[in-house]
Amino acid sequence: MLHSEEFDGPPSLHPDLPARSGELGLKRTVLEQALLVLIRAGLAELEADGTGLVYRATERGPAFVDILEAPYVLRLRERAEWAVHQWAPDTDVRATTRSLLAAHPSSCEGHRG
After folding, report:
1. Does an H or E element contain 81, and which?
2. 45 with 55: CB under 8 angstroms?
3. 13-48 pLDDT, tens per residue?
4. Residue 69 pLDDT > 70, yes or no?
5. CA distance linking residue 21 with residue 43, whole number of Å
6. 25 and 100 in contact (C-beta within 8 Å)?
7. What pTM value is reported for the model?
8. d(Cα 48, Cα 30) in Å, to the nearest integer?
9. From the CB of residue 1, how many other CB atoms can be counted at a distance below 10 Å?
10. Dist CA 80 CA 31 (whole Å)
11. DSSP class of residue 56?
């Protein structure tokens, strides 16, 4: 979503920087911490299903997102909607995540799933 222009989408929210290769590992850490905050706030939950663990928004989650009004958040939301419409119908999210992690093993160092 942050580099959507590279995928023939809307203009990217973040610039294309040479050191961007380490971004995936950093974002993974931030995402893990953010998910814990959302769970503690009752905005997300962790469920186990037949294929593994899944994070889901609770009933309160969408209402919280709807009150966010910062310009960056609004642009991020547009990119998220674009990404969902572009890939969600044809994407196996779990398989894609596994392939990303396999392609970038250094981004997973020090993390336990």
Report:
1. helix 71-87
2. yes
3. 888 777 666 676 677 788 889 999 999 999 999 888
4. yes
5. 31
6. no
7. 0.59
8. 22
9. 19
10. 15
11. E
